[in-house]
Specification:
The complex is a heterodimer. In chain A, about 35% of the residues lie in helices and about 25% in strands. Chain A contains 12 helices and 12 strands. Chain A is an alpha/beta fold. Chain B has 13 helices and 9 strands. In chain B, helix 2 packs parallel to helix 4. The longest helix of chain B is centred in the C-terminal third of the chain and has 22 residues. Chain B is elongated, with a radius of gyration of 24 Å. The chains are: A alpha/beta, B alpha+beta.
């Protein structure tokens, strides 16, 4: 695995080189985000004495904590930090104290850091085809006819047979339309685009740049507010289910998607439309790996489905 | 617009009916006195209607008059339904001026896409109405300020204030005051108790997401929220609003009976909630007769 050391000081550089480890890379602290943007599956060391980290440390720690595809650690060469656990609360996997800096770094220690904190292999190998680019932070660069990595959210109404019985066919369609309008209002605020709709459910596409995970925020907010939303006070009470997946698909505008063949979309439908998913939000393994680790306690590991572990967001309210 | 209302009144109602209608707004309204005519003299029908509309306009009761006329058309008054020609056109013209009619609540309210004011564009200074009052407080301890860059702290709180305003306004609530890190919000129209509770719950959920996805501070942001319903004399002066018993009581609920990350509501507010929402609240164990209910995000296996 690669080790990226962000420092502008020669003694720190020498300290790491002495370990004899081959895959060391040294970068300027100012370029943390720029460098990390294109990398998955690496351990990042931050030299706390470097200016950018001194000035806005929690900001950088927070960023790294959200990168489930990276691990990070701290090099502390100044006055020893009173509370090193502070860094571990942010998800750090190693802490190099001033004392250790004097003793020197062994290759074994670096390997141990890697061994104790494995990163999902899909990120090391990339999992996704490298030729498929991220769709980006918003829709600006997305072109029709090209394939991108998106966050795909399935949303579908439960119990529509019962709703049809109560409201009749026309009433049920009006209900369905109101549901879609309500979803559109909500998803639009998170760059969600209603891409497919078939019967009582459909798929929203969200741009994804490997970092900012709007789709997860949108889905989770929708889930948390499902009992108090405008939708929950419609003439007939029913629930809806959601499934979130990360995957690639060709982009075409709504209404022109008939010829698209996408494994990711199929996976999403199968994952979310299973029996027993009523009123739930389920996530694929790929999604879980990209959300802040602080959310893990709210997920429950489900059974494997088509070789993929599915997670369910725990119930609340 | 005024002429349409004058014509509508004079063509569809007798003078006695018009006076009855307007006394629902101003109970001691005296048309003869207003026109300087002896009670023994008759007032020409059209002139009476014109005087009523003029007075309502001058006393800022014009939306109340139009909403009563709309009610007389749809539901009737004293068992009789009236038809006012071009009333729909008047409502449309008022909407263009930024005051929209809500058929469900049979009242006018400002168009929040055009303006958001503390009185919804229609309540008058000194008017006593029943509101649902939401008090919220951002728990900002000294350690948070000391251990974080002040600029980041301020930016964080600014973002949260924006989120809160958005949620409150979308549910037809109004923020009456921001003081330090707390706010007093009011809900008047529609299902005010439910809307206040849903707003408060939504705010708690938004903060949960904020803490997990966007928080740059070294600790989670926390809020305390409380809701109580009761009469308040509306005023644009914050000091006068705070003198109201209902507002004082809401402060008390927030300060004495609400833990961080939670919402406390009074029994009366609780009684307005549908079962699937009220089941998320737990009754607080209090000494005495007061019954309060508390909500916090509770995940399965955590309760």
């Amino acid at each position: 695995m690669r080790y990226l050391i962000f420092t502008d000081r020669e003694p720190i550089r020498e300290f790491f080189l002495e370990s004899g480890y081959e895959k060391l890379e040294f970068h300027s602290p100012d370029s943390l985000r720029e460098i990390c943007k294109g990398i998955r599956g690496a351990v990042v060391y931050l030299d706390l004495e470097s200016r950018p980290f001194e000035e806005d440390l929690t900001h950088h720690l927070s960023y790294l904590n959200h990168r489930s595809d990276l691990r990070f650690a701290i090099v502390d060469s100044g006055e020893p930090t009173e509370d090193p656990a502070f860094f571990f609360h942010y998800g750090a996997v190693d802490y190099i104290s001033p004392g250790l800096l004097r003793q020197g770094l062994s290759r074994e220690r670096l390997e141990q850091v890697q061994r104790l904190n494995p990163i999902d292999r899909r990120f090391i190998n990339d999992g996704w085809n490298r030729s498929v680019p991220y769709s980006g932070v918003n829709w600006e660069g997305v072109e029709e006819g090209r394939e991108y990595l998106f966050a795909l959210l399935y949303v579908g109404l439960d119990d529509m047979m019962r709703v049809q019985e109560i409201l009749g066919q026309e009433g049920a369609e009006r209900f369905n339309q109101e549901f879609r309008n309500w979803l559109d209002e909500h998803m639009d605020a998170w760059y969600g685009y209603q891409w497919l709709w078939n019967g009582w459910g459909g798929v929203y596409l969200f741009p994804f740049d490997g970092q900012k995970f709007y789709a997860m925020e949108a889905a989770l907010e929708c889930y948390l507010n499902r009992r108090i939303s405008r939708f929950s006070r419609y003439e007939v009470r029913t629930t809806f289910r959601m499934g979130l997946h990360l995957g690639s698909t060709e982009f075409q505008k709504r209404g022109h998607t008939g010829n698209i063949v996408s494994d990711s979309v199929n996976t999403l439908f199968h994952m979310a439309c299973r029996e027993g998913c009523r009123d739930e939000l389920v996530l694929s393994d790929e999604v879980r790996s990209h959300i802040p680790q602080s959310l893990y306690p709210y997920l429950e590991k489900g059974e494997k489905f088509e070789g993929r572990v599915i997670y369910r967001v725990k119930n609340c309210l | 617009m005024l002429n349409n209302v004058v014509k509508g009144l004079s063509r569809s109602m007798t003078q006695k009916e018009m006076i009855h209608l307007v006394r629902r707004i101003v109970p001691d309204y005296d048309l003869h006195k207003r026109m300087g005519v002896s009670v023994h003299n008759a007032i020409p029908h059209g002139d009476g209607a014109r005087q009523i509309v003029k007075d309502m306009r001058e006393w800022n009761y014009f939306p109340d008059l139009v909403s009563l006329m709309a009610q007389a058309e749809t539901q009737g008054i004293h068992g009789r339904k009236y038809h006012f020609p071009r009333l729909g056109h008047v409502i449309q013209l008022m909407a263009e001026d930024g005051i929209i009619y809500n058929r469900e609540t049979n009242s006018f309210i400002e168009d929040s896409r055009k303006s958001v004011t503390k009185n919804w564009g229609v309540l008058r200074e000194g008017q006593t109405c029943t509101f649902a009052i939401l008090k919220l407080d951002l728990v900002k301890n000294t350690q948070m300020v000391r251990q974080n860059d002040p600029e980041i702290v301020e930016k964080t709180f600014e973002l949260i204030r924006q989120d809160i305003s958005e949620i409150i306004n979308l549910r037809l609530g109004r923020i009456w005051s921001w003081e330090g890190d707390g706010a007093i919000c009011a809900f008047y129209y529609g299902t005010r108790n439910e809307q206040a509770v849903y707003s408060a719950m939504e705010i708690l959920h938004r903060i949960f997401l904020f803490n997990h996805f966007s928080n740059r501070l070294d600790r989670p942001v926390q809020l305390r929220l409380a809701i109580k319903t009761g009469p308040v004399e509306f005023s644009l002066e914050e000091g006068r609003i705070k003198m109201s018993e209902t507002v004082k009581e809401t402060y008390r609920l927030e300060e004495n009976h609400t833990d961080p990350d939670s919402l406390t509501i009074s029994q009366e507010v609780y009684s307005h909630l549908p079962g699937d929402v009220s089941s998320g609240f737990r009754k607080l164990n209090l000494v005495g007769r007061e019954q309060l209910y508390n909500y916090r995000l509770c995940w399965e296996k955590e309760t």
